[in-house]
Amino acid sequence: MISPKVLVILSAPVDSISAVHTILRAQAEALRPAMLHFALPASLYGRLFDLPEDVPLLFYEDGRLDSLLAELTDETHFLLLAGEYAFANRWDASLLRIHATLGQRTLLTGCMTPCADPSLPSADSADAPTVRLPKLSSHLGALRQSLSSLTERRPSIPVQQPPPSFSSPAFVPSQPHLPALKEGVGEDAVAIGRGLALVCAQAPVSTLLIDPALLFGAVDFLLDGDLTLDTLSLSAYVLDYAIFALHKALLWPLSELPRRRLVRPAPEALPGTTLARFEQLLGFRYGQRRGIGKAAMGLFGHDDTYEQRMPVALHVNHKLRTARMLWQETHMPLFVSAMIDLHASPISPVAQVLRFGFLRRIESLPLTLFTGGSQERTLRASFPNTQGYPANALLPRTLMEAGLSEEEHFRRSLPLLMMRAAKKQIEFTHAAWVDADILPHPICPEAVPHFEPLMDERIHLATVGGVPDPSFILIPVKYLPQIAKETLSITQLDAELKRGFSEELLWERLFMKKPEWFAIHRMPRKKLLFLSLFDRELLSHSLAAQLSDLPKPYYATAEDAAPRKRSRIRPKEIDL
């Protein structure tokens, strides 16, 4: 049998130094370095210093991969890379084995994160916040923003301790992601970025989208397909190639790459019916400004997740954790969530349902969902423990006449929903509110979170820069009637005084009334307290890094409610 030979094609952005480093790393980590050939842009010819003379090199016209076809000899496979890359040990053998398992007419792609500081998520990451801050182009603009932040009422929970320092490791392993469609970059193009993080994935995940920064397959694809980088996904679809996203980081870029694109082909290049069918499968249409629902996560088809396999050591650990709860006759908290139509929600209903699917698949969570609106029928059909959104269990709607928005009314009614759910299941000693979209990626269904440290006599609440984060709150059931009563009282007073109605302000005022009830968890960003209860191996590398070296929770005392002297603009409360 002929030994497979791999042609490694380096494309922009690549210079002579990064090309040499990539070639040397590829050979050093390969099982069979002699079977590697390399192709580079012609602009690098004669500029590759410190490279052994026996390295097989080919050169192609810049921006034209089709000029390589005449130079091919006995290569059987190709690997297309954009920019400078690093490689795992025996990466070539692993790629060849995966490709042979999936079949000859298969392409392997992947959207890998660089090994970088997780405190600054990239703009195209599925974990990154969707809010974009305005750019200030002058000192005057910065001054105006500072003044407005001081005069605006911002909630802050005072904790008399030194500020926490969240240290992140210098090296974070690369994380494989599904390639996904992001916002549009014009009428005829859409951006390609990172979708769902593939954590504990059992096998490569089927997809319809190729990330031009990483593509592996048989050389036959180069001979038969259109090698325009911006239309590789369409070329694979027309030629009936199966595309899979790598579930392991066998190779990864060393820096953030320029945004890749999927461009609409010229009208004469493809029949209109073929393009329409391709758009239908992707779940998006050219001319729209952003991907729709699942396409923005990199999910195409009927599946809303991917197959996962829990590490063996963790599997045993979680079985023991479950057995210990049965032996001690203890329960997890009763989880309560809700999903209704809110016009002000920054996340689309389709994306919310997808993320709630990640949450409900965790088998160990006793979860109750309140729902109403356009997604109610879908949720009731897919999740049996779904209840209607009860108007009689909420704060009076007459409060909305005083200025509460629909979303503020909903968020301030959460303690009443928790109390309603707890009354129906009296065996639970603790109840926890959890946002329906709190999980950014799937977690192994058999996972058992470690809740014992939070199952005490305190209300556990996270803060970010001193501001409460109500995305996950764990409350002893015995406190719920008093919390619900105080919520109504505080909201009525807020309405009379015409002061802020945000949920963060509510929890700050509850804290000031009963600080001895609270345990405060200081977090580097929102929606991390719930994730901190899972084993780090079940989370993406960036999330696990952000959860390292967290400070211990602060157990407040009655002295924390002592009145503080405040100036008119209250600058000391600005804790962000």
Rounded to an integer in angstroms, the radius of gyration calculated over CA atoms is: 27 Å
Spatial separation of the terminal alpha carbons: 64 Å
Looking at how many chains there are and whether they match, the oligomeric state comes to: single chain
Question: Stretches where pLDDT falls below 50 for ≥5 residues?
Answer: 117-153, 160-169, 565-576
Please state the overall shape, judged from the principal axes of the Cα atoms.
Answer: elongated
Q: Overall mean pLDDT score?
A: 84
What would you call the structural class? alpha/beta
* Spatial arrangement of strands, main beta sheet: 3-2-1-4-11-6-12-10
> What's the total count of β strands?
22
Count helical runs: 14
- Binned, the helix content reads 25-40%
Strand percentage, roughly?
A: 15-25%
- Largest sheet descriptor: 8 strands, mixed
Chain-wise SSE layout:
Elements lengths: L5 E6 L4 H14 L6 E6 L15 E4 L16 E6 L2 E3 L3 H12 L3 E4 L1 E2 L26 H13 L24 E9 L4 E9 L7 E3 L6 E5 H6 L7 H7 L3 E4 L5 E3 L6 E4 L8 H11 L29 H17 L5 E7 L8 H12 L6 E6 L3 H7 L3 E3 L17 H7 L1 H11 L5 E5 L24 E6 L2 E10 L3 H18 L5 H11 L4 E5 L18 H6 L7 E2 L21
Helix pairs in contact: 11-12
Concise description?
The protein is α/β, with parallel strands linked by helices and 576 residues long. It has 14 helices and 22 strands. Helix content is 26%, strand content 19%.
Walk me through the structure.
The chain has helices at about 15-30, 90-100, 140-150, 220-225, 230-240, 270-280, 310-330, 350-360, 375-380, 405-410, 415-425, 480-495, 505-515, 540-545, and strands spanning about 5-10, 35-40, 55-60, 75-80, 85, 105-110, 110, 175-185, 190-195, 205, 215-220, 240-245, 250-255, 260-265, 335-340, 365-370, 385-390, 430-435, 460-465, 465-475, 520, 555. It has about 575 residues and is of the alpha/beta class. The strands form 4 sheets. It has an 8-stranded mixed beta sheet with strand order 3-2-1-4-11-6-12-10. An 8-stranded mixed beta sheet has the order 17-16-15-18-20-19-21-22, with helices on both faces. A 4-stranded antiparallel beta sheet has the order 7-8-9-14, with no helix packed on it. Residues about 115-155, about 160-170 and about 565-575 have low confidence and may be disordered.
